[in-house]
Write a structure and sequence with these properties.
The complex is a heterodimer.
Chain A: H1 2-11, H2 14-21, H3 36-46, H4 49-72, E1 75-77, H5 87-102, E2 108-113, H6 120-140, E3 148-154, H7 165-171, E4 173-178
Parallel strand pairs in A: 2-3
Antiparallel strand pairs in A: 1-4, 2-4
Chain B: E1 22-26, E2 30-31, H1 34-53, E3 57-59, E4 88-96, E5 101-110, E6 115-125, H2 129-145, E7 154-161, E8 168-175, E9 182-183, E10 191-196, E11 202-209, E12 212-219, E13 225-227, E14 234-240, E15 246-253, E16 256-263, E17 269-271, E18 279-284, E19 290-295, E20 302-307, E21 314-315, E22 322-328, E23 335-341, E24 344-350, E25 358-363, E26 365-371, E27 377-383, E28 395-401, E29 408-410, E30 415-421
Parallel strand pairs in B: 1-3, 1-4, 2-4
Antiparallel strand pairs in B: 4-5, 5-6, 7-8, 7-30, 8-9, 10-11, 11-12, 12-13, 14-15, 15-16, 16-17, 18-19, 19-20, 20-21, 22-23, 23-24, 24-25, 26-27, 27-28, 28-29
Classes of the chains: A alpha+beta, B mainly beta.
């Protein structure tokens, strides 16, 4: 018993060190030295009015293109636990690939999503499969693979909130957005 | 523990073999002045909450005590305690050493055999009194139950707030009982699935930092996060190896998700699975010789086992439904998992060969079990069926005995998910 008491005495000094360490909160910018987000915003504040104008025109053009993409159809839906493109998805992606060809100066991100009826990690993988299925189809249609990135959000970003099959079907999706 | 047979109709059966809780008296720890007296009372309260919360003990109300609390150096008059049915008595004291330090002493008495069982004297910073209470709780638990304790531990989890389609997620850490709650990240990027290293000083997790989902390691001592390696696709589902020298995780690339390890000492990357399916949620056996994971290589998501080099892959789950997130018990005898069947989610346990499946908890969504270091309690998260107004959702941390008893919600400042239980903290 005495031995144990001494062992405890020697070790509890570590307590305070471990408690203070966890006080620190990592913020988005503090964690790494470089920051991708700050480059564009600092450019717009220091630039001349013509630069501002150019940028706003660019932003406007991008917004117009984004609107057009939505009009063409920015998303395809999937069956439960499936990453297969059905015929209606392929028809939509044919139209999407025409849009991507016309807007050859733009790059795209395909976001893969899942409904909430799966486990988190599995859904991350499934979302990646869905986004990749869309990417592969677009590449077959002649779109340069270097113009397309994929990202999976699993079940983290539902398009429709709800606990019914209608909501789930709309959340099982791959969405193409302009980078 | 009486095991529950697995029935095809997936009904949660409550175990009828509950152990009668042992009646104990936890006297207020005595102090000479106001401050030490107050700390003494608080320490007793934490010990009592821990022991009662384990389900194995019943604390007799101090109002029923015949004798006043005594110093741990004084042998109690056992006749004062035995009439109340009390089997064990805890006495203790708190002494101010200086402004910042206290000396805490405790003794555990066997009221029936009229003898002392264990005693400890600890000198600590006053503000660390909670941890002392947890350490004492573990000593008492160990001595009286014969099992190792789990009170001097922490939980890392994902704190959630905001509407479901625009959820703010932050890493947070707290003591096992919900106290000492702290945020580790500020919510400016999405974080998921944190897990402790064997020393509890690092946490590995998935972060969407700069919108690139990758595995990171967070160091609790420095507060810094570090990107793990450089991979051509999304890395996720990380866990430390039992020795802490490797991270096992998934890499998703070109529609294929396989399992990899990365050696933290030399950055060596090894690919362990090579299927065109989804292989994810890997977890090592406590001896590091085997790995369990879930895969849909056979058509639906099921649990598989393989050697740590990726050889001898075998499916072990054969019940109805999909099986996911297998995680090995600290002593190796069981695997906890998430099961999905007929629009319901379950938390269950089975032997590593897939036999003896028992379901412990169910819900609209329950997921991601994590073991207390003594293997007696599981924590997981539960999402209630969301109200279809786009605003409300309820996601909370729960724990349950592996007997299937005492499902208890862990109170957190806001919603919580993806809990991970630390090992016993290093002394």
């Amino acid at each position: 018993m005495t031995k144990k008491i001494f062992a405890m005495l020697g070790t509890l000094a570590l307590l305070s060190a471990c408690e203070t360490a966890s006080q620190k909160v990592v913020s988005g910018s503090a964690a790494t030295s470089s920051s991708s987000g700050s480059a564009s915003s600092s450019g717009s504040t220091s630039g001349s009015s013509s630069v501002d104008k150019k940028q706003s025109l660019f932003a406007q053009a991008k917004q117009t293109a984004a609107d057009k993409l939505i009009a063409v159809g920015d998303r395809v839906l999937f069956d439960y636990d499936s990453a297969e493109l059905d015929s209606s998805a392929k028809i939509l992606l044919d139209a999407q690939s025409r849009f991507l060809r016309v807007n050859s100066d733009l790059n795209f991100i395909i976001e893969g999503h899942c409904d909430e009826r799966g486990t988190r990690e599995y859904n991350l993988a499934l979302g990646e499969q869905r986004a990749t299925a869309v990417r592969d189809y677009l590449v077959i249609q002649g779109i340069d693979p270097d113009r397309i990135k994929v990202i999976s959000y699993g079940k983290e970003k539902p398009a429709v909130v709800g606990s019914n099959s209608m909501a789930w079907s709309k959340n099982r999706r791959a969405v193409t957005i302009i980078e | 523990m009486i095991s529950k047979a697995f029935a095809d109709d997936i009904k949660i059966k409550i175990n009828s073999g509950q152990i009668e809780p042992l009646p104990v008296a936890i006297a207020d720890f005595t102090g000479k002045e106001g401050k030490s007296n107050q700390i003494g009372r608080q320490i007793s309260e934490v010990i009592s909450n821990n022991l009662v919360g384990s389900g194995q003990f019943k604390a007799i109300e101090s109002a029923a005590f015949i004798a006043p609390p005594t110093s741990p150096s004084v042998r109690p008059n056992f006749l004062d305690w035995s009439p109340l049915g009390i089997k064990a008595l805890v006495t203790g004291s708190v002494k101010n050493i200086n402004n910042d330090e206290i000396e805490v002493e405790f003794r555990l008495w066997d009221v029936v055999a009229e003898t002392d069982l264990i005693g400890l004297r600890l000198t600590v910073a006053s503000k660390a009194w909670r941890r002392v209470a947890h350490i004492i709780s573990d000593e008492i638990f160990e001595r009286l139950s014969g099992d190792s304790g789990y009170f001097d531990t922490r939980i890392v989890y994902v704190s959630e707030s905001g509407p479901q389609n625009k959820r703010l997620k932050r890493l947070a850490i707290m003591d096992q009982d919900g106290e000492n709650h702290q945020y580790l990240t500020d919510g400016s990027f999405l974080v998921l699935t944190p897990r402790f290293s064997p020393t509890s000083q690092e946490i590995t997790y998935l972060a969407y930092f700069k919108n690139e989902p990758r595995v990171y390691i967070f160091n609790l001592e420095t507060g810094q996060q570090e990107l793990l390696g450089s991979f051509p696709g999304m890395t996720f589902a990380p866990r430390f190896s039992p020795a802490g020298d490797k991270i096992i995780m998934s890499l998703a690339q070109k529609g294929i998700t396989d399992i990899y390890t990365m050696n933290l000492n030399n950055q060596e990357v090894k690919r362990l699975t090579n299927s065109s399916a989804i292989d994810t949620s890997p977890s090592y056996s406590p001896d590091g010789k085997q790995i369990i994971f879930n895969s849909d290589r056979g058509g639906s998501q099921q649990i598989y086992i393989m050697d740590s080099n990726g050889k001898n892959v075998k499916r072990i789950s054969f019940g109805n439904g999909r099986y996911a997130t297998p995680v090995w018990a600290p002593k190796g005898e069981l695997i906890a998992f998430t099961k999905m069947h007929k629009n319901k989610f379950y938390i269950g346990v089975m032997a590593p060969d897939g036999s003896g499946e028992r379901l412990l908890a169910e819900g609209y969504l329950v997921e991601g079990p994590t073991w207390a270091p003594n293997g007696r309690v599981l924590m997981y998260f539960k999402q209630d069926k969301p109200i279809d107004d786009g605003k409300s959702t309820n996601v909370n941390l729960y724990k349950i005995d592996i007997t299937g008893f005492r499902e208890t919600r862990i109170i957190t400042p806001s919603d919580g998910s993806d809990p991970a239980w630390s090992p016993l903290l290093p002394n």
